[in-house]
Structures are given as C-alpha cells and as structure tokens.
Amino acid sequence: SNKSLAHDEL
Amino acid sequence: MNIFRLFGDLSHLAAIAILLLKIWKTRSCAGVSGKTQLLFAVCFITRYIDLFLHFVSLYNTEKVMKLIYISASVFTCYLIFFKFKATYDGNHDSMRAEFLIVPAAGLACLINTKFDAIEILWTFSIYLEAVAILPQLFLISKTGEAETITSHYLFAQGSYRALYILNWIYRYHYESHVDTIAIVAGVVQTILYCDFFYLYITKVVKGQKIVLPA
C-alpha cells in the first residue's frame, strides 16, 4: 500500500 | 473520486448549509456549540493552509470546496459569536476546548507522516476534527435535548466521515491507497457519533425529538 504523501482528500 | 467520497463531501456541505440556514432563519444559535464551530474553522484553516501559501491560480473543484468550507465555517462563527451573540448558550457550551486542542497538537508532533510544518498542521487538523464535535455533543447532554434541525445537522456531519470510511475501504481495495492517520482518526470520529446515530434513527426519523437521558 503506497503511502499517499500528498493528501488528495478534503 | 468515488461515490462514497462524493456523497461524503456532499453530506459535509449539507451539514454546513443546514447549520447556516438554521441560525440565519431562526436568527438564533440556541443549541449550537460555538466551540465546535470554532474547532471546525481551525481544522479547515490548518488543513487547507496551502490555499494561502501558494496563490490559488487554477480554480478546480477541490480548491473551490476548500474555499467554501473555510468561508462558511468562519461565517458561522461570526453569526454565533457576533451577530446572534445574545442567543449563544455560553453556559452550556462549557467543554474546555483546550483539552481537545493541546492533545491534538501534541499528538500531531509525535505521530505524523513527515515532520514538516505543513504535514504537522494537516495531522493536527485531522486529529482535531476527530474530537471537534465533542463540545456540541456535550452541550446537548447538558441541555438534555436537541432541536430537530440541529439533529439533521449532526446526522449529516457524522455521515460525512462515515462515508469517508467507505471511501477509504474502496481506495484500499481498488487503488491500494492507505492514509493510516486519516483512517484511524476518521474511525474514532465516527464512533463518537454512534450514540447520536442510534437516537437519530430511533427517534428523529419517527418525528420525535431527541431528549436526553434517552
């Protein structure tokens, strides 16, 4: 599972 | 974007709109916790701080939503603490917000994805949002009741993060995307609503009012 560095959710 | 996140964001927008309408139409913020609204405003500002840092050039939906969330929550605080201050129930809105802010800030410094300012602010915002509703739930337990419109607000507010949990399950399964901090905080946040959800579904849906102790 890739850690999403940029948080792409509100 | 998936259906769960879409309906989650719509539910969140609905909650903000319901609360604004309630205060504006009844010209009263009785039964509304000003502290919870302040905490939400802090959450939005710390989470979307990038809007202020890099000038917002391209207006895409997400940036518009962030601007709506920030402006609507600040405006709601203005209505509560200034315009309709006389109707603010300060005596019952007595949960110490510091007891929520300080631990969230401390935890954000200890448990985060990356130790840099923006990331810590984002983490603080996530932890704070998880507990931001507590003053509102506390106020309802003190007054012993919730106006029906306030119950609808709480249901929409609680549903938003519950739908986000489904979004995270979807994204884990189809995109192998995991944001552990957001997931754990989101689960805690949704658990805090369980008692209210039970009351809402067994009472408000049948047209009754929520009166505590149940």
From TrEMBL, chain B:
Localization: Cytoplasmic vesicle, COPI-coated vesicle membrane; Endoplasmic reticulum membrane
InterPro entries attached to this UniProt entry: ER_ret_rcpt
Molecular function GO labels: ER retention sequence binding
PROSITE patterns: ER_LUMEN_RECEPTOR_2
Gene Ontology CC: one annotated term: COPI-coated vesicle membrane
Keyword Transmembrane included in the entry's annotation: yes
Residues spanning the membrane: 36-55, 67-84, 96-115, 121-140, 182-201
Keywords assigned by UniProt, alphabetized: Cytoplasmic vesicle, Endoplasmic reticulum, ER-Golgi transport, Membrane, Protein transport, Receptor, Transmembrane, Transmembrane helix, Transport
Membrane topology recorded in Swiss-Prot or TrEMBL: Multi-pass membrane protein
Alphabetical GO biological process terms: protein retention in ER lumen; protein transport; vesicle-mediated transport
Membership in a protein family: Belongs to the ERD2 family.
Protein name: ER lumen protein-retaining receptor
